[in-house]
Amino acid sequence: MTQEKDSMPDAAERILEAVMFESWLRFSFLEEVSGEGPDDAPRLLIRLDEAARQRLAERESHLLPLARLVDGREASFENSREAVCRFVLEELEGKSIAQGTAAAVLDSPDFQFRLQLFNNWLQEQESILERTPHDFADWRVKFAQWRSRPDIEAQTLAAVSPVADPAEAAGDGGAPSAPLLGAADVQEDVHR
Questions:
Q1: Percent of the chain with pLDDT over 90
Q2: What percent helix, strand, coil does the chain show, rounded to 5?
Q3: pLDDT at 127
Q4: Whether the Cβ atoms of residue 40 and residue 65 lie closer than 8 Å to each other
Q5: What residues does each domain of the chain span?
Q6: Are 80 and 88 in contact (CB under 8 A)?
């Protein structure tokens, strides 16, 4: 039986789930390893123990391949982006997302808006999330509750909408902003 592919908004939500999960892994399994960085500076790695892998296999099996991609790697923006893109291309595209559409979804205003919502939530909740351990299901619920507030989408939309005078953009002098994750990332990943 062929699995039905997601619509564009559903595909955007699946990719956002991967971004959220990778962020959750960094919050939950970050380990400082001394003497392994440049000049013997400590490095921050994502490390999952066997119990964590087992829990993920039971609770988030569809995301386990993404956990394997980051496990033991340095927690960096580049590694995060690469892992999410590989996961999207290897585990979602052609399965739950129509083949050849990941790049279009990533560049869509809908996905970029969802990504901005998540980044806003993460920044707002960072100190709480760092203090108290949560499982990924908790993150999903907390984010869904936060984003369902009527004021949140309006504030985010106002923040990401173009202004008549780009110099009015807060603190950036009118500089264009690049998306955190977009089609170029998955196209680069294909050529690696």
A1: 60
A2: 65, 5, 30
A3: 87
A4: no
A5: 8-190
A6: no
Q: How many CA atoms lie within 13 A of 109 on its CB side?
A: 5
Q: Which two tokens stand for residue 150?
A: 């009527």
The pTM of this model reads 0.79
Q: Tokens representing 12?
A: 């955007």
CA–CA distance, 9 with 14 (Å, rounded to integer)? 9
List, in sequence order, every beta strand (DSSP E) within 11-154. 30-33, 43-46
Tell me, what amino acid is at 106? L
Residues 6+ apart with CB under 8 A from 99: 93
What's the chain's length in residues?
Answer: 192
Residues 6+ apart with CB under 8 A from 118: 16, 19, 20, 23, 143
Measure Cα distances from 49 to 36, 52, 74, 83, 100 in Å: 20, 5, 16, 19, 35
Query: Both tokens of residue 98?
Result: 């129509």
Question: What distance in Å separates the CA atoms of residue 166 and residue 130, rounded to the nearest whole number?
Answer: 35
pLDDT tens digits for range 48-71: 999 999 999 999 999 999 999 999
